[in-house]
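Box 3.1. Reading complex inputs
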Amino acid sequence: MDIPDTPAVPVEALTALLDGRWAHIREEARKRMAERGLPDTADLTTEQYRAVVFEEMRALAESGYPTTGFAPEYGGAGDPGGSLTAFEMLGFGDLSVMVKAGVQWGLFGGAIEALGTKAHHDAHLRAMMSMDLPGSYAMTEVGHGSDVQNLRTTATFDGDGFVISTPDESARKEYIGNAARDGKLAVVFAQLIVGGERHGVHALLVPLRDEDGAVLPGVRIEDCGPKAGLNGVDNGRIWFDDVRVPRGALLDRYGSVDADGTYHSPIEGDGKRFFTMLGTLIRGRISVAGAAGSAAKKALAIAVRYGERRTQFEHPDTGAEIVVLDYLAHQRKLLPALATSYALHFAQEEMVSALHDLPEDADRRELESRAAGIKAVGTWHTTRTVQACREACGGAGYLMENQLPRIKADTDVFTTFEGDNTVLLQLVAKGLLTGYQQHIGERGMALFIADQFVETVIERTAARGLIERLVNAVTPRDEETDLLDRGWHIKVFEDREKHVLDTLARRLRRAADPDTDAFEVFNDAQDHALRAARVHIDRIVLEAFVAAIERAPSPLLNRVCDLYALANIEQDLDWFLGHGRFTTARAKAVTGAVNALCRALRPHASSLVEAFAIPDRLIAAPIALGDNHTTVSAARVMGSHGKGESGKAVAR
Amino acid sequence: MDIPDTPAVPVEALTALLDGRWAHIREEARKRMAERGLPDTADLTTEQYRAVVFEEMRALAESGYPTTGFAPEYGGAGDPGGSLTAFEMLGFGDLSVMVKAGVQWGLFGGAIEALGTKAHHDAHLRAMMSMDLPGSYAMTEVGHGSDVQNLRTTATFDGDGFVISTPDESARKEYIGNAARDGKLAVVFAQLIVGGERHGVHALLVPLRDEDGAVLPGVRIEDCGPKAGLNGVDNGRIWFDDVRVPRGALLDRYGSVDADGTYHSPIEGDGKRFFTMLGTLIRGRISVAGAAGSAAKKALAIAVRYGERRTQFEHPDTGAEIVVLDYLAHQRKLLPALATSYALHFAQEEMVSALHDLPEDADRRELESRAAGIKAVGTWHTTRTVQACREACGGAGYLMENQLPRIKADTDVFTTFEGDNTVLLQLVAKGLLTGYQQHIGERGMALFIADQFVETVIERTAARGLIERLVNAVTPRDEETDLLDRGWHIKVFEDREKHVLDTLARRLRRAADPDTDAFEVFNDAQDHALRAARVHIDRIVLEAFVAAIERAPSPLLNRVCDLYALANIEQDLDWFLGHGRFTTARAKAVTGAVNALCRALRPHASSLVEAFAIPDRLIAAPIALGDNHTTVSAARVMGSHGKGESGKAVAR
């Protein structure tokens, strides 16, 4: 397949397309982050690193970006979309800062805002925003990570206030950010017990440390110790030995207890209330997805710059050394990943926009599901992409100075925190099946069983009219449609989703039979369910890319979208062939088209990564900044009895 | 698909099967390593860590294992297979020690033995073995990593000795182990120039440091600085500013220079000589493959033990919490990887055996190619598996105390050092095509062009008679053959290899036409070539597994082999469907069989990892040693004003 040359696009124009609706936030964040640079953490102990990150947090608080989402009456700008975009930009910097910011302003602050009422807001929001009140979000327990509904910490009403208790070791709070060093107040998730009756999981404010930082009586905190990465974040374990808090400590928007011990809630049913409260997690997941996207972009920028410069082996005819990015295998490692980063970028922006514009009382389920899915698909993309970039840089990619090791180590946990990706995809699958709500209480959060399914319907989330037109324009004879036809891509993605979902629904219907072991039915179909979720998210991502191109047509972005769509299809070729969707000739043509698109986009690889506009001070890797040969700090040269001085010799 | 229960096998019996020919070496290594435990490196600076590793090396040298491969007249045991097995066992320990041992005894010592002659052996082997003479293997240059043939350091005969020079920055030696701190002598690879004539790459002994450890005049060494992992190894950069060495410094087994300046070599042709000398790399690659295999086994042992204990979510009918390894998705993450680890184990042992038994003057090309391929396939398996294990342990897998982060960081570079995996697979592909030798000189190491191809022939490497019988017993109607029929598996693997190779040969034939751009032809087929290499290695690995079961029949190992074979086939379903090998029904049945095998092997998962017999002191991860809840060191508890003392409270 030959693809005509694609006209080059000025980098600035591409950047403008990517910057989108919150361009001003991105621009300011870039300027600010370029000025500050990356904190120099190379030779620090863990405690020193944590102190540096705390100072970065103070400075961040002063900048106002991370808190721009809070209400103006407390000093924010009431701009949740801007706030999420700011978090995304933090992904270009030190990721410990990003994660600690997420804990403080996303989870801790977000929970006070979303689950608390005016008294809590008045008492804590300003201090939380300014970092005068560093806090923790104590949800996860060591015995119940993803299964939040079954956590075991208790908050028992004793007639006056609540007693917070850790009943056994499995109930200790685990991996809690801001716990080991800084947290003064925690949002603690516990089973609420009033007059012997259980009301499900609720959140309460529990002080952890006094003004001087001493841990308070009844609270025990242990350091989680060194981690693979993110060592600037002070994760800890917390036990509560019957800690008493006043009645007002309960974040009571969705559940309150009167002075006389009567429980009230605007939401009936523990399960529904629980999921409403969990809705506060949506911003955390969107933030992680965004920051993961930024980290992948930075890794790609480093690897593409290196791949443009690095040569290996000679051309058999000319004898000239070949730039490694000219090799198909190298392009295959980087360019489909780059195209996917573009696709996820637009999906992320669309999701942020959708949340920003969502009316307060709107149904948030679609968006919660989308956030869970994009977080899962996006963080896995980051893990794979950073790994590919590391390998594409060979030994140079293994040196800390070249940043990839740190990006890799810091982002690794993204796939399992803020919701384990596998569990999140199950959540998405469950959301896709109708009729699941009836069973959610008794059947557990990760299991989904339905006794009736309606035919699944593809609900388009973006550019609905355009997509309708594109799909309708495709001739019915798939086999002959141009492989670069966008309508065909969408049709293929939609058809895949619909078929996977329909067949999943059919398999799970068996569980309605009371004689079957519901778990067996679910478990046998688990990989099927995960696929359903993934292909659903893939379709949403493609739609977002298509919508972005519709807003600002660009032949180059069109090519990038082609590569995203076809590389995604190629990864599922076994499915398309196995379900009679493609002939073998068509399947071969898909692989040929991916190769051709790699060749066609190869000349634009640099523009595509430079368009991310990541400041050089944040890229920081010597292999990506000028000559690989001039990266030497004279201080590290150990022997120099030869003819030149070390500094000179290095520069010769 | 229902698979009948497989009888359990005592762990000791499985261990005996795995231990194989060098069981005594494995047993002794286990005993020794269990006694020493892992060095405690948690709070060390890089320099301290290096010092600890150096002491471990001294102790290792005293144990005699790593040097058992050298000739008895120098204090070895003349047991190369035993030596390679000892390296494999080092993979269960601290990997900095393993890599430093590989540099010292594998590369540095191995080069002196293989490329030098008696004078070099007499002068250096004993001191090298005892660690009195720490040394470096200075091959890689920053500008020419994989392209060794084009490295630029020169060794110019000046009538009396050689002058070693680094002509420009791209020729600086890079990532050289033992260089930054310890190395006293280096085997330096350089372009040999005698009387103005170039004779290609040769190796010379060049002193780096004096007795006191001071870097010698003319040598400059710089520390590579912190790395993603392996920070106990002192990697450095080296420049030579016209360093003079005597004529005897040339390791002259394959090329020597007379006092009068006449060059002699027993091998005609620079290219052929070069590849003969590169043959010394084979042991390094086998060692890395072995140690990578051990690291993956250790990660699997940790993840399976955790997966057996960890619960998540409740059974919808019983309400009991479900052990995570009971989930299909969890089994899918771990069990096919475990089966592949078994397969690679037997392939590794067979390769070690083959090298051990190879007559001195035999053609080593098949084995060199196999070592390159198994190193590539095996180290990628390790990277993927350790990642899967990390994710399967959730947040716990991210804590350093649980070892997975270190295994991950330390093994990450295995995919690109001792030969970049992509380059190695190309080497394998080249080896599979006949007639390539003629062009190797002028066309470069990574490119392969042939002007004539014979029909490819599958050469079986193991259990030839048995495999012949198994394949012949398969009925011609594939579709109806039992999916667990071993002969069918082999047939499928062989057919895939043959077809991929035949079509690759046909594509590359076009390059013989002088009007084509040979590079374009090669580059367009690069992914095809990489696939050819991979499926070739996959087939060799399957044969090795089959041969091992033939030596010691075991129903359980048979099931493990089924899972290896079918999971491997499943990964290539797109290929099998796309090439008309499977019907869609057959493809679906393959996926069903993989799921069924996961279920069938689930009860044996523990036995299968315990059979690796990794001492608990090396597993070390609290999540894999007894209760996850009793991992607390009192020293790290920061607040304990509550009712219990910290120690007691933790154990309650």
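In summary: Residues 328-357 of chain B form the longest helix (30 residues).
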